[in-house]
Amino acid sequence: MKFFYSVSRAARAPLSLPLALAALLFSVPAQAAEVDIHGYLLGTVSSRVSQQPLKTGEKNNWLLAEERLQVELSAESDAGDTAMVGKIDFLNDHVAGSAEIDVRELYGEYISDSFELRFGRQMLTWGVTDRLFINDVFPKNWSAFFSGQPLEYMKLGSDMAKVFVFGSGWDVELALIPVARFDITPGSDRFVVYDPGFTVQEPKRQLSNGEIAGRFHTAFGSADIALYAFKGFWHQPDKGLSGTKIVYPRLNSYGFTVQDSVLGGVLSVEGGFYHSVDDTAGIDPLIANSQYRYMIGYERDIMSDVTLGLQWYGEVMKNHGAYFATAQAAFQAGVGPKPLPAHRKIVTANLRALWMNQTLTTSLFFMGIGDGGGRMVNPDIHYAVTDEFSVNVGAHAFWDGPDSWMLGTMKHDDNVYLNAKWTF
Amino acid sequence: MKRYILIAIGMALLAFNSTAQAEESADSIMNKAHLASYYAANDGKAGVHMEIINPDGATRVREFTILRKDIEDGGDQLFYIYFKKPNDVRDMTFLVKKHPDRDDDRWLFIPSIRMVKRIAASDARAAFVGSDYTYEDISGRHPSNDNAELLGEEELDGRKTWVVKNTPKEELDDYSWRKTWVDQETHLVLKESYFDEEKAEVRRFTTDEYKQINGFWVGIAGTMENFELEHKTTVRFSDVKLNVGVPDKVFTERSLKSAPKKWIK
Lengths: 424, 265
Fold this sequence. Notes:
The complex is a heterodimer of chains A (424) and B (265). Chain A has helices at residues 17-27, 142-147, 320-332; strands at 34-48, 62-76, 82-93, 98-111, 115-122, 158-166, 170-177, 199-201, 211-220, 223-233, 238-239, 245-247, 250-262, 265-276, 291-303, 306-317, 343-355, 360-369, 374-384, 389-399, 415-423. With 424 residues, chain A is mainly beta. The longest helix of chain A is centred in the C-terminal third of the chain and has 13 residues, at 320-332. Chain A is globular and about 65 Å long. Helices cover 18% and strands 45% of the residues of chain B. At the A-B interface, strand 14 and strand 15 of A face strand 6 and helix 4 of B.
């Protein structure tokens, strides 16, 4: 999470065909007994408040102006052991001036007493952090997050084959992702962000470039304990020593989470080691070094219907000396982003209150990055006018931080947003 | 030795304190009511239809299936809730491990991003899904949290009841004491009025309908009214089944993520 290079164009990954077919084939024998249709109509507008023109020179303040119709179709066999689920967004994007189909999820599943198989595009969220990620190695849409789309749009589905196995007191999730999907970061087409304008090169589509992620979960007393492992790629690109392209270096990661009720609240601890396979020695200044990530969080009610959540997060870079020497030189020569510190710290605070029989939710989310890395505050109000109709307004304000870092790069992108949602 | 002295002192106190007899009986009534209302059979399943009605008459509907399993009568319990309505919480699941002697453990599953979130549970008086019922009303307030005093016997809608005054041992924000009408035959709470310090009734629960299922008396419709907010919530249970053998594995993270279809229909 650093946003050295913006990647907004690879945005909507087409559904990988083999998995889509597998999902469909899976559903054919389902002999659907029950077909459910649900969904929503979501209108979103979001506008930058600064008068700063985009880096392209264009004067456009709209981050988002769109209508989205999500259709959720689910069909289940009589026996209930096979099912097919699709969540597909039909999107009318007024900023891009285009209409698109965004397949949020589309999968077939088989469920038995001891395991579950799911094929197709699906969503997975791992770890115990809030809006920061260590063991959640699945793709994110930071652009959606920073422009005020509903929080679920921060997550992107991946095309995968997933096995979920459960025993007595434990369960394991294993995801095989043949084609990696990468993060979407705020792009210079809508945000005033640092964008050196390199072309991004995704790994070749071949089996050896697939990703694999696993999670083992168990309980110890009332504590939840989970172990994680991942083999794949960094989901934000780096510029290698060679040439003008930015690439996604290889990444293996290992980690754990522990979560328990403590003193009337919930204590969360998460840790992980990110092994940057393409630069184990840390000598290539432009490929991320290996690092340790950790987070300690605590959340509790401070009064009735008022919850405060605090997080302390850190990234400790290995071989920082080797990285810093060359990265600093590149930065001073104007050909690289400002080097990261050896220990990067982030704090977040989230204050959330429920009002009017919990139909009105107000929240204030703050994120601050150490060493002058930038600050963000996000006030947000959500009101469920009826059971079917809700409105949500909010704002993001950013300040401080170097131009080439996450948050710092967003300094001219303060924005206000509005979501109106009608569900059916 | 110390123990015998304490018992002797206790017995002496019982003998000389004329109200002690009545207080013990009030405790026993409240214990029976607690078991009848929250621990009928060893496990159970019900469909719940909840209507939350504001002063203008506008109604919000919550529908969910609730599964329960008792670890010990009057003690730890497991709850699993699968939400069906409204649309924005459809397929959401909620797991509670209730511990009368300490804070409950609670987990919520958010289906849109397939995330299990552990949630803080220190506030038992918080509203349950925005209704006029609190978490404690749904899962049961343990009688040991109150001082019970038998006020007498009364006939309520043709039923013989005990009337008990319950005063929380720890001061609460939302009321100062309750007057509870317990049916002498079924041990169900037929009515409960909540009073503030000025003796004004601030809140009232009534059992609107009950019936015998598998030999157990079960309240199947009830209302909670909040007089301060002129707000009320009605609850109706359907398809109530008791002693159906809900397996332990229903109350795990696995079924938060993958709802046990057989049990939630």
